[in-house]
Specification:
single chain, 78 residues, alpha+beta, two-stranded antiparallel ribbon, 2 helices, 2 strands
Amino acid sequence: MDFVAFVMLTDFEQDMVGAEKKCGSMSFCGARDAKYPDKRAMGYPFDRPYSVKSIADTVAAQQNMATRKFKIRHGQAV
């Protein structure tokens, strides 16, 4: 089966909104009252219109994002 891995790195010092000492939310570990623990919107940068034609073009235009294709095989060795 074919897959695509996506990686995006961000600057924690720029994006952090504070730190809790214990996990207060199942959805957002470290967040109390289910507040999203990031300065940027959930889904960023894919929560806004693309400045280019496709997701692949958007990722290719960013220095902090990358994709790699890979395949998972099960059964007989190839």
